Amino acid sequence: MVQSESAGPDMNRSHDHGMAVSLTQQDRSRRAFVASLRSHVLQRMAGDLRQHFEGSVGPDHEKSGATLESPEAIHEALKPELPFKAYSSVRTAAQEMVFDVVSDAVDREIESLNEKAARSENIERLTLNPTLSLPKSVTGIDVHLSPGAYHEERADNDVSAGAVYDNSIDVFAFGQFGKRHNDIGATLSNYLRLKFPEFAPLAILDCGCTIGHNTLPWAKTYPDAQVTAIDVAAPVLRYAHARAESMGVPVDFRQMNATAMDFEDEQFDVVFSSMFMHELPLKHIHQYLKEAFRVLKPGGVLWQMELPPMNAMPLYENFYMNWDTYYNNEPYYGTFRKQDYRQLLIDAGFAADDFIEATMPRYTFIGEAAFEESINSDNTFDTLTGRMDPKGTRWYGFGAWKR
Asked: Which uninterrupted H or E stretch holds 300?
């Protein structure tokens, strides 16, 4: 059944779309506890850690003549400290608990979810490739500490990885990604619409789409465009397709590696990704960007939501963001952020003068008028850039136009 955008929440269901799972009171209570714990860690405990560094560890090192001039040096200085150990321990435990508390409801209904996905409408919009070789950067890591990551299949036509992902976002992000986890897609797409009103894309590609939560807003922002989304993992694509169909949003989902796409040259007006590049080894980042340049039409744009680069952020923020590199099974995170993003795109074929970047408030949280005013007057890099915070997260985007 197609779900309307304005459908009200059902407290007995995890979401307001056709792939929602039923929740018991125990499910809701456990999820609420872990979401609150995550919020506490990322706000109160993180604030206490910063205070400890700025009030004690940093000054002590300065007095001894050992200046801390890199994120790695701050990490080493804080590792023996009790506030850092407590913060890291609780944050890691909370991350593991995210997947634990959502899995019960998914496991109870997985057979039904698999059946729903298999019989969802417009199945021709889903194209899987069972012979696709998955990269070791996917199969060798339980990324984000998610058991089995996003590619593991437990049964025929399995969607469990997608269902776990969708349900885990509610807990992981404690509401900071918006009602349908779609604020990044809504923010990035509406930035292009408002900043470049003459640009009217007819073919849009989302790379590394997982469950399509940030893909679907592009179809709403540009309703005349054909939207395609790719990922290497079949379980999340099956779920993404069924989820999109239940919402009545037409998107073509294809199993494909973004570093070696099957598309013809110059096929898309927009190539988009969200939180994708920092999951890739540097070699694969270069391959992906060259492929993005190849499949873009002249006059098209590569537009990525990503972590802000180290050269744009304060030293302590770089240390804080790079925590995931060491403790959250994201080994490529820090290496990516060290890159010169403009140079990455130049190496892929884009012209230096065509580079664009922006920091943006969350579109679905503040509304169009405030959003448009902000993007026309502000490009702030601060402690809220790229971080989930109820006080006012700012997403970072970068990319380039193709001449």
From this structure: strand 296-306
